[in-house]
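Task card 7
Instruction: Convert sequence to structure tokens.
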Amino acid sequence: MNVIKIMPCLDMKNGRVVKGVHFVDIRDAGDPVENAAFYQKEGADELAMLDIAATVENRKTRLEWVRQVSAVITIPLTVGGGINSLEDIELVLGAGAGKVSMNSAAVKNPELVREAATKYGSDKITVAIDARRNKAMPSGFELVVAGGTTPVGKDAIAWAKQCQALGAGVILPTSMDGDGTLAGYDLEFTRAISDVVTVPVVASGGAGKLEHFYEAVAKGGASVVLAASVFHFRTFSIRQVKEYLRDKGLRVNL
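Output:
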């Protein structure tokens, strides 16, 4: 059985950690450096930092944020938002990230995933997949890009398979229907992806109760569980989540 990893997520805007519902209704959630140091001390296995406005504002990830956060942690940091080229990846990894996460750029240019995996190794390349329900798609899930603002008419599950074939080492699916709602991960979407890929799947979007973390693994097939609101607003500590998962029979690093 895999060791299940807990991954807090810092959604960044204007130099602050923020959190929204369905990718909108944004509210402040503190300083990124303070949050990063706190989460490492609490026992986070990995950390994600997503520059949520980069693509919409048509700019690159702010490298100073990456440097500041990576300077206070030793756990792996995955950075996403506005990463559009091998040069961008080079700069983000050089600023201290352990992995990069691509979303819109990968959809626009799938070859970028292959080139990046070849150059830097699959373990450094995560593809984030945002989707929403659409009955017109074979799987029932349509890919959306640009921070969830633009549907692209492509089946999200087929895209996950393609990403693995291109060399992505991690798939990070987020359901637009569940993001920030605290109503639980979209287990149907997460499971649909974990059923068609063999690389680690990160459950994302909607954690609000301890059982949601367990369901992401037991029902969704995830091996990494990402959350933001419940950690930022101190609903649960990381240790609480890990002890709960351990008591449910899952392997965690305590």
